[in-house]
Amino acid sequence: MYIKLFLLSLLALSIADEIKKENNVLVLTKDNFEEIVKNKNVLVEFYAPWCGHCKALEPEYAKAATILNEEKSELLLAKVDATAETELAEQHGVRGYPTIKFFREGKVLEYNGGRTADDIIRWLKKKTGPPANDLTTAEAAKTFVDSGEVVVVGFFKDQESPEAKIFKNVAAEMDDFVFGITSESSVYSDLKASKDGVILFKKFDEGRNEYEGELSEDDLKKFLKSNSLPVVVEFSHETAQKIFGGDIKSHNLLFISKGSPDYESKIDVFRSVAKEFKSKVLFVTINTDDEDHERIMEFFGLKKDDAPTMRIIKLEEEMTKFKPLTTGITAEDIKGFVDGVLEGKIKQHLLSEDIPEGWDKEPVKVLVGKNFDEVAFDKSKNVLVEFYAPWCGHCKQLAPIYDELGEKYKDNANVVIAKMDATGNELEHTKINSFPTIKLYKKDTNEVVEYNGERTLEGISQFIETDGEYGKAAPDEEEDEEEEKDDEKAKRDEL
């Protein structure tokens, strides 16, 4: 078995030497792809040159490849330009960028790890090695604990006990952590473990957390997730997945300039309150000096001058946002805001632009959150509303047709043609998930009917004339997948 693996490793390295490399990452095409991934361990990133997420990943991906190369590891990292190698992309079901797949000796796994070099290497080694490293000496254990920001050690005198098996099962399932296991008394003593159990070691906050109570897989997973993030997490490309993919769905976001003179003092106050809400609310800082965070601020209707300020989001079936009643960042302000949201005393915050001057002077009326209900729910008229996004290509294509529609009905006292930028205005009663979305608010009843017919002057006109019957969307009708992907690509280009 070892001879076979050794020969495969030599073969992989010799073939890899002949393939073009960029920063130790193999560059794959349809001509060399099968040769490289066959019977080897290769992580392959399918990317697009224009993709912002791919550009952010590139240095970390190259760093991981370089580290593995220096270790003389048989693990290889490769990439495919999916916009040039369209056949390969289609063959492997690439639907977005980056798509990362692990080809492990003929089998294909979807990569679901983090986006840092350490995350990538940890995930790969977990998939190709034992779920937990066997720590047989105090020196090996100390090196292991020092090796990462967060590591987990299981202390079990009997590694075949039910508790040890639970630990090993969790270690095999959770790719975000590096696990070690030991039965050695010297390791117990050196790592200050007084009994069998699980300890999470980390290089921040309190430094270590000991699992208490009866061991179960679900409880151990919750323990690891809740203790592996700092009490206050700084938002970045690297931490985004852990923040939004975690079990805690309520996040208190502090928008603050890292360059402000009172930054450290405000973070200290923020951290002190965060400890009171551990496992209930995740406290996150967002640096307003970072240009990459401008779109996040726009999403919350914020400008740099608004910082420091807080917003809470709840990531449930639909995301809801909350705005504090005060502008201060004192401990009292922070605690009052979080308590107010958790207790339901602070209501959801909806974005709305100011009503523009002359909003009703043109054939197509301009709606915002502040005047939407007054216009759309006017029972004396049929009101057609297009919900659009400024970056949406399909919305731009529809614009001249929609203007024609406005002209056609401008003198009809029973019909109003209107539009609303749904990225800058939100409605409690209407959630928009794709662009453009066209809805008819019917006179007399205020019944709302969504249009799903052809986007032509004739088609939309017929929808209005038939009182919402022609081209209406079926209940719970699925969105057009290709169009949604086009919109996402346009949004990524904009980002």
Automatic annotation (TrEMBL):
InterPro entries: PDI_thioredoxin-like_dom, Prot_disulphide_isomerase, Thioredoxin-like_sf, Thioredoxin_CS, Thioredoxin_domain. PANTHER family: PROTEIN DISULFIDE ISOMERASE, PROTEIN DISULFIDE-ISOMERASE. GO terms for molecular function: protein disulfide isomerase activity. Residues 463-495 are annotated as: Disordered. Keywords: Disulfide bond, Endoplasmic reticulum, Isomerase, Redox-active center, Repeat, Signal. Residues 6-129, 325-469 form the Thioredoxin domain. The keyword Transcription regulation does not apply. SUPFAM superfamilies: Thioredoxin-like. Belongs to the protein disulfide isomerase family. This is Protein disulfide-isomerase. It comes from Cupiennius salei (American wandering spider). It is an enzyme of class 5 (isomerase). Residues 1-16 form the signal peptide. NCBIfam families: ER_PDI_fam (TIGR01130), pdi_dom (TIGR01126). Its main location: endoplasmic reticulum. The lineage of its organism: Eukaryota, Metazoa, Ecdysozoa, Arthropoda, Chelicerata.
